Amino acid sequence: MTDLRPRLPSPLQEVADDRFARHGVRLLLKRDDLIHPELIGNKWRKLVPNLEAAAGRTVLTFGGAYSNHLRATAAGGLLLGLSTVGVVRGDELSGRPLNPSLARCAADGMRLHFVDRSTYRRKAEPDVLRKLSAAVGAEEAYVVPEGGSNALAVRGCRALGAELRGRADVVALACGTGGTLAGLAAGLGPGQRALGIPVLKGGFLGDGIRALQTEAFGAPTRAWDLDERFHFGGYARVTPELDAFAEDFERRHGVPVERLYVAKLLYGLVALTEEGAFPRGTRLAAVVTGSPFTV
User: Fold this and answer.
1) Spatial separation of the C-alpha atoms in residues 220 and 142, rounded to whole Å
2) Would strands 193-198 and 224-226 be described as parallel, antiparallel, or unpaired?
3) Contacts of 200 (CB under 8 A, 6+ apart)
4) Given this model, what pLDDT does residue 292 score?
5) What is the pLDDT of residues 182-197, one digit of tens each?
6) pLDDT below 70 — which residues of the chain?
7) Are 260 and 293 in contact (CB under 8 A)?
8) Hey, how many other C-beta atoms are within 10 angstroms of the C-beta on 254?
9) pTM to 2 decimals?
């Protein structure tokens, strides 16, 4: 696994930002974006246990047209010499030129299989999964769920919480499928809590996190909560306001801000701080789970 050797623990960087300082809040950035150049942030923590478990088999997984998870799986497969298949939501994309994200997946050797949205919603059903596996010639594949969130991934993310024990009062991160938050919260120490900022609409994430924690650890933990107000319209939605906020943060601190997750997290934390959500003296750690995509 030499090619997957990470930089751990990832750096914890305090930044001086008057939007937090005037409320007596210290902002720290947990730079998981610096763990590995290809498997960035929570993708390393979630994927490596699954790639190890695949044990040479084809890895079959799922995602949308701009999925960070698909990109990371393709990169991990290339590093380890594993065959990878990505089932992509949206059969209307088949035959069109690939966007930069999917083009990177293909360049790293991932076979892409496009399905209609109805089939994609049913992808976890045994019959549907069997047909998908047969359609791509991967009947014996090791299946990783959308977003990479399963019990192995959640246990892998517990180390993120352990790295922050005693170093922050609140640890916040943007959430897609909830696996990183599920593991992070389980790794925190007494008196600490995790705060999730979902990037998708729907209000369903809480049940998913509790189910993941039960699968991974036998029972859910109580050291986390969610604020669902900062998705900016849903996954992959970026408004001019959010883009301007991210550019301003980059200018202030020299830290690249990924738009689909990290920008929403940081925007939410500024808003919450201005609302008085964090008592004076709070050490607030924001997990930087990804970096801007470059081809």
Assistant:
1) 26
2) parallel
3) 176, 231, 234, 235
4) 77
5) 999 999 999 999 999 9
6) 1-3, 293-295
7) no
8) 8
9) 0.90
Considering only CA atoms, give the Rg of the chain. 19
Amino acid residing at 199: V
CA distance 185 to 223: 6
Separation CA 58–CA 138 (nearest Å): 7
Neighbours of 226 (CB within 10 A): 17
pLDDT tens readout for residues 55-110 = 989 999 999 998 889 999 999 999 999 999 999 999 888 889 999 999 999 999 99
| Backbone dihedral angles phi then psi of residue 234, each to the nearest 5 degrees | 125, 180
Instruction: Answer yes or no: are the C-beta atoms of 74 and 105 closer than 8 Å.
Output: yes
Strand order in the sheet with 224-226: 12-15, 26-30, 283-287, 170-175, 193-198, 224-226
Domains of the chain in start order, with CATH, are 2-37+149-287 (3.40.50.1100), 58-140 (3.40.50.1100)
